[in-house]
Every structure is written in C-alpha cells, then in structure tokens.
Amino acid sequence: MNESLFPKDFLWGGAIAANQAEGAYLDGGKGLTTVDTIPHGKDRLSVKLGIEKRFSLRDDEYYPSHVGIDFYHRYKEDIALMAEMGFTVFRTSIAWSRIYPNGDELTPNAEGIAFYRDMFAECKKYGIEPLVTLCHFDVPMHLVKEYGSWRNRKMVEFFTRYARTCFEAFDGLVKYWLTFNEINILLHSPYSGAGLVFEEGDNKEQVKYQATHHELLASALATKIAHEVNPENQVGCMLAGGNFYPYSCKPEDVWAALEKDRENLFFIDVQARGAYPSYTKRVFREKGITLEIEPGDDEILKNTVDFVSFSYYASRCASADMNDSNSNAANIVKSLKNPHIQASEWGWGIDPLGLRITMNMMYDRYQKPLFLVENGLGAKDVVNEQGEINDDYRISYLREHIKAMADAIDDGIPVMGYTSWGCIDLVAASTGEMSKRYGFVYVDRDDQGNGTLVRTRKKSFYWYKKVIASNGADLS
Questions:
Q1: Domain-located, residue 4
Q2: Does the annotation count 259 as an active-site position?
Q3: Domain CATH number, residue 266
Q4: What is the chain's mean pLDDT, rounded?
Q5: What is the dihedral of CA 139, 141, 144, 145, to 10 degrees?
Q6: Were both Cys, which of 7, 139, 412, 416 would link to 371 (CB 3.0–4.6 Å)?
Q7: Whole-structure pTM over 0.85, yes or no?
C-alpha cells in the first residue's frame, strides 16, 4: 500500500481503561468500584458473572486493579510516550467513583475533576484528542450495595448527573465521548459489565434486560446533555464487535448466527436508531421478560449517537447445536472454534477479513461513521538479553487488521479513527493477568503484582510510529 486510503484527518492512537491502568484505587478521594472487588485467580469468573457476591475485599486475595500500571501517578510519562509514537487520539475512561465516590452524591469530588483536567490538558499539550468513555466496566460499589446497580431505575439519575458533571468540567478539553464501553457485555459478564449480582429465584434474563433498558435510557439522556452543553460534542456508543458466522450452510446454523448477531447488536440498534427493534417483542416473550417501561421512555431513546464505535478482536461461529460443552471458553462471548483460522495464545480466532465484514455489516445497518476503538493481540512478551521485546507477532496481527480497515474505507465506509487496545501494557479485563500483554510499551509487572513498573518500548512501538507518520500507507 503506497498511497494511503485513510482520510487526512484520520485519528490514530491507542486505548486504555481507568480500571485496568490507573491503580491508586482509593487515592484522591476515589471510592471503591466493582472492578476493585474482582480478584485475580480461580474465583474471578464466578464474581464477574454475578454468581458470587463480593462486596468487600479479602486479605487472602490479590486485586490487580488496585495498582494497575500506576497510570494515575505516571500519566505524564505515559502520554509523552504516546506523543512520541505520534498519537492524534488517546482513548481512556473516567473512573465514575473518582468524580462521585459513592455515586449518589449531589456534589462531585474536586480532586477527581482536577486529576482528569490535568490529564486531558497533558494530552492537548501534544495535540492529542482525548476520546473518553464515561462508564468502562466500573460502577461505584455503594450503588451496587445500596440500589442493586443498573437493575434500579434510580441509576439513570445518578449516571446523567455524573455525565453532565463531566461534560461541563472537561468542556474545551474533550469533544469525543462514549457512554458505555462494550455495552453488550452486560449479557455475558453481568457483574463486571454492569454491577449486577443475582439473587436466588431471579429470572436472570429479566434482570439483565431491565438493567439494559436503564443503561439505554441513561446513554440517550447523556447524549442529549452532551449536545446541550456543547453542540460540538461528538457522542458514540460502543459495541463488543465481531460477527457470528454460521458454522455450516445448514439453514438452522444460519438462523442461529443471525440470532446471536442480533443479541449483540440489539443495544446499538437502540442507540443508533432510537427505538427497540421489531424482533425484540418475540425475543422478550420467549425469554419470559416483561420490561418496566415508563411513559416518555420511547421519546428519550430517540436521542441517538453521532457515531458507532466498537471493539474487534475476533470473529465468532454459531450453530443450532452450540452448547456449553462445545463452545470456546476462551472468550466471555461463547462461540464455536472456527477451523479455518488461526487462534491467539488465549484461544481468540485471528480473522482480519472478519473486521472488514463486521464494518460493512455495521455501516449497512446504521449509516453512521464508525470508530474502531479497540483492536489488538494479547500475547506473552519476552524481554531478551539485550532488553528488547521483539513482538513481530503483534506487528503482524495489527498490520493485517489495519489493511482490512483500509479495505473497509475503500468500500466507502466513513471511519473516524483507530485506537489499538492496551497501547501500553495493562491488566487484562478478562483474566486479570499482566502476562496477557497488548501494548507497544512493556510494563515491568507480573501476574502476582511484582515488578518495577518501568516502561520499555517494544519493536511494535517503532513500527506503529511509522504507520502513523505515513497515515497508514507504510505498514512494512
């Protein structure tokens, strides 16, 4: 590719999340959040799924979010590294409990606002646009214990107050916003996705979709508020993307794949189109769901997003015969193993063409600009005797996916930008490991929390710098 297919104003950068990077989990007046109670180790999954209640910390467990990579104290050093690569955008999130420690206060925490103002100003110093997620897998623990998190409609009020505070406090520093990160993960990992814990006798589907209704209302209201605070604000939704392929051409498999796609896209159907899609009536009836919808809710949902953002790591496969015993346990979103593609060390299918397919499907469906805000390869990196990290496997993965994104642009799809996931090594959301690394920058920390936290540029650091400098034309 000698001539770039990417538009001149294309935003290149990387992405992290507050709960996986900041650490300093009680510094600066911050309150405890859901992610702070999710341990590393054997009980992690049952806590994430909302099966096991973890409302307080235990002395015999390790919680990776408590230190993360100490971005809270090192953000100037880290943003300088991003600037060195040439970033024009940096995606991060605000920890809700830094702004409202309990979540239901009427007055925000001034220390939290000051921290983020300083951090966003540091980005602007280098000409980097912050792309900010309001809720990236962390809910203040007080809201979980006191109100049951998003199963309670009061959360809409708490979230919109928080959102307005952010839009006003960071006006002039941030213009690109996302409401909820990977909103569809609520269905697959209810506690880490939305702070949901199940009680005995719950209809879990009812709880999840009622919480979804509240999140969709909160997202629509936040979008409306953002445009009122500053008409220049651009607000997006965020999907954990990746199409489901039918496992075979058997019609039942094709139908199963369509149903699985709809399960994920349902959220974005509402956020991008402004109403519940027609198929939900049947789905809710079959699942025994009766949503509590108040007068005026349909009108609120008409506040649609400006763009559709998404993560893409892998495609997925579905069949009519899919069940817990034959689906791939490597990913929280269950799917069948695709025999036609390679897989990462963690069992995620590597499928660059799947990215182009996903982008075409999404643009056909929504006709709004797309923003690929997460894409990357989790892998074990080795520091050699010279202190180098030669991560050619990561370069190869990213190269092929950037090519696929260029092909999608050539297909006529408007794409705003690209932020690769975990541009600096951080705690993996899925497993809580540091050894599942994504970054261009290596952070000296292991899965047990040992290490100096020293930052080291990987081979991919210099490769990505070249990609950005050439606006995607030089991928060699």
A1: no
A2: no
A3: 3.20.20.80
A4: 95
A5: -170
A6: 416
A7: yes
